[in-house]
Amino acid sequence: MWRQISKLPFLFGVGGGVYYLMEIMFRGYSHWSMAVLGGICFVLIGLLDARYSLRFPVWAQMLASAGIITGLEFLTGWLLNIKLGWNVWDYGAVPFNLMGQICLPFTILWFFLSFVGIVLDDYLRYWFFREAKPHYRWF
């Protein structure tokens, strides 16, 4: 029972922490809101994967995950950057951006990074929560 209660907060913490550290490594800084957004995205990708992994190939899960991440990034950017004026990020100079909050190059990046998220979520569930060993279908 304890394992089931602690699963989502654990996965949220791992996803948020990993994303926050990635931002520090590649941008040199981050904002606490990015840990929250990263945690939410990681949990949603994991729930999508847990529910549909046997029905859809990995590339389809990656496409859906990129859509989830991009959608949440837009909503978060609209709230934090546009409405609250926090200026956490600005893709205004990046080609194919929407209001400076999302852009095509990063959506493509989320597509490829989501594979890492899917695999990490699967193995964390396998190692810590005794769920089924991951198996992947490409087509």
From TrEMBL:
Keywords: Membrane, Transmembrane, Transmembrane helix. It comes from the Bacteria. The keyword Transmembrane applies. The chain crosses the membrane at residues 7-26, 32-50, 62-86, 98-120. Coiled coil: none annotated. This is ABC-transporter type IV. The lineage of its organism: Bacteria, Bacillati, Bacillota, Clostridia, Lachnospirales.
